[in-house]
């Protein structure tokens, strides 16, 4: 039985986009129709060169009109920062969109963006789905699935530990605030920290409303750890005394108690001041209630060059990419996890191709 093939465009070729290219080329369920880039130095380069695989015959372009003219079924939209106007332009063209940059669930603070996306979907007859690994999976989809085997739920706690020392993106390092003065970083959080606050609110709201309740308020706690020495990481230098680690606690309050709690620890080294001792667990989920449930998930295999954060980037990309068939085949509109049918990944059961290679530096 042959599977339907989906024509896709990879939008942006950072650490997530390059993973997307590799998968679209290797998975027989997809055809890579085009690649959009924002860096002029990447224009005209083969998608394979950008993603560290053999040539594909698909050349990158910075021309939005040219990309939309491909008439692809779906755009995997993965820049560091989202542009709602651009997203709406894509949707109005008739292309569906799956993205790991947020927009996972409408909230009061994001209603204007969601209404713009809905209008664009209506005009283009297209669908939109925002997801990722966190938010999009570990803090919302996974708890909702696990809660199905419980009789009573008191609290959901999600802990994320992300190791960025071998992350290739200098832009990511700067946007998060690594290498900044610790006091200034806390008093004036970086743009990506503010983005994460907004989309974590969306994620927690989806969980709370799926459980039949309403969020009363949100709170956030944020502190940083200092690098004890100069840290020479893949994306650049983190000078001694500057921000080498970050800790956040996002909480959704319901009935005057913390119902959903996200604890996040991002680090550039293990030897920081203070040492919070979170270790290497990538995601930890605790559902307190009857019966209480705890689970961890992380890669079962070591990365070939020690970049354990790579697996988190794969999870970020693949939770959306594997939903592309369901999004393309769904009725037009903005689709959250609560709107999609059970997602059945296409083309995953296949031999590893000779040209796929090891994911070093991606």
UniProtKB/TrEMBL annotation:
<dbReference type="Pfam" id="PF19328">
    <property type="entry name" value="DAP_DH_C"/>
</dbReference>
<protein>
    <recommendedName>
        <fullName>2,4-diaminopentanoate dehydrogenase C-terminal domain-containing protein</fullName>
    </recommendedName>
</protein>
<feature type="domain" description="2,4-diaminopentanoate dehydrogenase C-terminal">
    <location>
        <begin position="140"/>
        <end position="343"/>
    </location>
</feature>
<dbReference type="InterPro" id="IPR036291">
    <property type="entry name" value="NAD(P)-bd_dom_sf"/>
</dbReference>
<dbReference type="InterPro" id="IPR045760">
    <property type="entry name" value="DAP_DH_C"/>
</dbReference>
């Amino acid at each position: 039985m042959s599977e339907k093939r989906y024509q896709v465009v990879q939008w942006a070729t950072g650490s997530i986009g390059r993973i997307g290219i590799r998968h679209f080329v290797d998975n027989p369920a997809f055809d890579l129709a085009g690649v959009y880039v924002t860096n002029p130095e990447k224009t005209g380069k083969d998608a394979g060169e950008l993603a560290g695989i053999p040539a594909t015959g698909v050349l990158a372009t910075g021309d939005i009109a040219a990309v939309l003219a491909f008439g692809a079924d779906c755009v995997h939209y993965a820049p560091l920062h989202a542009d709602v106007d651009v997203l709406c332009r894509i949707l109005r063209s008739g292309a569906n969109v799956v993205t790991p940059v947020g927009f996972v669930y409408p909230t009061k603070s994001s209603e204007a963006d969601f209404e713009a996306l809905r209008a664009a979907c209506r005009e283009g007859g297209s669908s939109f789905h925002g997801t990722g690994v966190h938010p999009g999976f570990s803090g919302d989809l996974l708890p909702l699935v696990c809660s199905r085997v419980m009789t009573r739920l008191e609290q959901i706690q999600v802990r994320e530990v992300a190791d960025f020392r071998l992350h290739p993106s200098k832009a990511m390092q700067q946007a998060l605030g690594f290498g900044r003065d610790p006091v200034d970083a806390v008093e004036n959080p970086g743009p990506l920290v503010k983005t994460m606050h907004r989309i974590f609110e969306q994620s927690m709201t989806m969980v709370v409303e799926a459980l039949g309740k309403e969020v009363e308020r949100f709170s956030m706690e944020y502190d940083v750890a200092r690098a004890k020495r100069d840290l020479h990481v893949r994306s650049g230098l983190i000078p001694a005394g500057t921000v080498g680690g970050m800790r956040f606690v996002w909480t959704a309050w319901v009935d005057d108690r913390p119902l959903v709690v996200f604890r996040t620890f991002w680090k550039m080294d293990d030897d920081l001041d203070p040492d919070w001792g979170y270790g290497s667990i990538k995601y930890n989920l605790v559902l307190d209630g009857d019966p209480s449930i705890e689970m961890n998930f992380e890669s079962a295999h070591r990365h070939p060059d020690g970049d354990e954060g790579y697996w988190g980037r794969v999870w970020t990309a693949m939770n959306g990419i594997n939903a592309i068939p369901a999004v393309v085949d769904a009725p037009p509109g903005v689709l959250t996890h609560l709107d999609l049918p059970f997602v059945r990944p296409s083309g995953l059961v296949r031999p590893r191709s000779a040209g796929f290679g090891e994911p070093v530096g991606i």
